[in-house]
């Protein structure tokens, strides 16, 4: 599960994917387990939920380059694009509304575009979190 955002700009609406992962880590009681993985340039935490092993990942790059971290992690942890869930902001959704989408285009989202390019696939599941338009 990868939370897209701008690592240096936490707390902004465009980094809501990382905020969701922070919340998920707290709910799964692994918030103290975040560590820097220099190989994939990301903060990672391991968790278990309902019998599934999860790798939580927050890229330490700018949004336009998030895909590089996710592709590196996919190679290191032997993940396929269909194993990856992207959590990201969606300007076209009202604040706080969420939607799940399987595959498809980036719909203008630079972080998703970066992931599609780096993974050579658009088969990732996306949790789109509404941030509304300014």
TrEMBL record:
What molecular functions are annotated in GO for this chain? Answer: peptidyl-tRNA hydrolase activity; tRNA binding
Protein keywords = Hydrolase, RNA-binding, tRNA-binding
Q: One Pfam annotation, family name?
A: Pept_tRNA_hydro
Which top-level enzyme class is recorded in the Swiss-Prot or TrEMBL entry?
Answer: hydrolase
Name the domain of life. Eukaryota
Q: What is its EC number?
A: 3.1.1.29
**InterPro entries (UniProt xref):** Pept_tRNA_hydro, Pept_tRNA_hydro_CS, Pept_tRNA_hydro_sf
* Entries under CDD domains matching the protein: PTH (cd00462)
What PROSITE patterns does the record point to?
Answer: PEPT_TRNA_HYDROL_2
Which PANTHER family is this protein grouped with?
A: PEPTIDYL-TRNA HYDROLASE (PTHR17224)
| UniProt family annotation | Belongs to the PTH family.
The protein's name in its UniProt record: peptidyl-tRNA hydrolase
Organism whose genome encodes this protein: Pelecanoides urinatrix (Common diving petrel)
């Amino acid at each position: 599960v990868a939370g897209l955002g701008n690592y240096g700009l936490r707390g902004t609406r465009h980094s809501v994917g990382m905020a969701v992962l922070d919340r998920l880590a707290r709910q799964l009681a692994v918030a103290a387990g975040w560590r820097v993985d220099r190989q994939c340039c990301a903060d990672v935490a391991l968790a278990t939920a309902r019998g599934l092993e999860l790798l939580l990942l927050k890229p330490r790059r700018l949004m336009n380059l998030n895909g590089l971290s996710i592709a590196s992690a996919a190679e290191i942890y032997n993940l396929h694009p269909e194993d990856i869930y992207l959590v990201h902001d969606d300007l076209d959704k009202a604040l706080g509304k969420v939607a799940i989408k399987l595959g498809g285009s980036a719909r203008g989202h630079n972080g998703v575009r970066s992931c599609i390019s780096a993974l050579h696939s658009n088969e990732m599941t996306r949790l789109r979190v509404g941030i509304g338009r300014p």
